[in-house]
Design goal:
The chain has 366 residues and is an alpha+beta fold. 18% of the residues lie in helices and 23% in strands. The longest helix has 15 residues, at 101-115. The radius of gyration is 21 Å and the shape is globular.
């Protein structure tokens, strides 16, 4: 499809900005009581029955044949997801509880161990610091023992191999302006985003005219399997803490107008999207959605270029079966029993409990 020409710097409508500010300040109790928020933990037929319709189903067994390792161990009969569309927002697909627990944990491993330690993928830290990738190498090698797959991962590069109290430093490129930061500061607060594939230039709001790094094949297979109309070529992995926000914006830098994919991991977040009215003086149509760990959103069609943002990250909402990440966690209640994470990362236990990870994937080119 031909690209719609839009200004990346255009300001959002005033009505949408006012709604954003309202939900930025609203306390957790008020969020729980606000029945205008789409929250799939509530009874669907009573609350949204006349506004949401099922448009398709994602069948995880169908993804097994094309997976590169993120879903290939799920029981063939285990998982299918209804995809909902709001009647007033054509093309906005909502996929509650899209990713099974196993896939959420494994996806975090790939993004925040493997991909963060790959120097081809840039972060916000690169603008002002030299990133010491040698720190991601394990100091000792894991020997033989039970849980062979997990122990093999202990030999892989990850910044979580470091002691959180280590004095190892990220040195600034301009020491007269910035101070060095420790590994603990980097992972706990300073890391805000990581780019995969196409390396988006946030200052110029464009993709560089150079060959980008290869998009991770396993993540690309998973995303394309769930959203077959788009070709994963670039992603931004946002790392949020409570108090952080994502300002209202539109994604208009891609030459393709195929849909945008968003996957939520960790703490809940409020997602706001707005479509302009049909008349110039008409207020925008707005929607507020509470997204939980494992939920997916696909913005296509009429909502592909809608303004959207995250006014609030909701503290203390990371699922209890996930908040130990990256430390090891036993899940005996799952089929056959499961063990996730690694004992090597025990010092970082609970890191995810106060984090929200958004994986935002898009197709850059027609």
């Amino acid at each position: 499809m031909a690209k719609v020409q839009l200004d990346a710097h255009q300001k959002p409508p005033e009505g949408l900005k006012a709604l954003y500010k309202k939900y930025q300040r609203l306390p957790a109790k008020a969020l729980d009581e606000d029945d205008t928020i789409i929250d799939f933990s509530r009874a669907m037929c009573e609350t949204y029955g006349d506004r949401l319709r099922v448009v398709r189903t994602v069948q995880f067994p169908m993804l097994l044949a094309q997976s590169s390792g993120l879903v290939d161990y799920i029981s063939p009969n285990s998982h299918s997801v209804d995809v909902f569309e709001h009647v007033s927002f054509p093309g906005l697909e909502l996929l509650p509880a899209l990713l099974p627990r196993e896939v959420q944990w494994k996806l975090l491993d790939r993004l925040l161990h493997r991909d963060l330690a790959n120097q081809e993928h840039r972060t916000n830290i690169h603008a002002h610091y030299h990133v010491p990738y040698e720190l991601s190498t394990p100091r000792t090698k894991a020997g033989p023992g039970p849980y062979a797959e997990e122990r093999a991962k202990e030999n892989e590069a990850s910044f979580f191999n470091c002691d959180p109290n280590s004095s190892d430093m990220f040195n600034p490129s301009s020491p007269e302006i910035h101070k060095p930061i420790t590994i603990g500061q980097f992972l706990r607060r300073k890391l805000r985003w990581l780019t995969l594939g196409g390396q988006y230039d946030w200052t110029r709001k464009e993709y560089p005219q150079v060959q980008p790094p290869k998009f991770p094949e396993d993540i690309g297979d998973l995303i394309h399997g769930m959203f077959p109309n788009m070709r994963p070529e670039a992603a931004i992995v946002n790392v949020y803490s409570p108090g952080d926000t994502l300002a209202l914006h539109r994604d208009v830098s891609e030459t393709s107008d195929e849909g945008l994919v968003s996957i939520s991991l960790g703490c809940d977040g409020l997602f706001i999207v707005g479509l302009k009215g049909e008349q110039p003086d008409e207020e925008p149509h707005c929607l507020v959605i509470r997204l939980r760990s494992g939920d997916g959103v696909y913005m296509s069609g009429a909502t592909r270029y809608a303004f959207h943002g995250l006014p609030q990250i909701i503290a203390s909402t990371c699922p209890d079966w996930l908040d130990a990440w990256p430390a090891a966690l036993e899940m005996p209640e799952m089929e056959g029993g499961s063990r996730f994470g690694s004992g090597r990362y025990e010092a970082w236990r609970g890191w995810l409990a106060s984090k929200r990870i958004n994986l935002n994937v898009r197709q850059m080119n027609i």
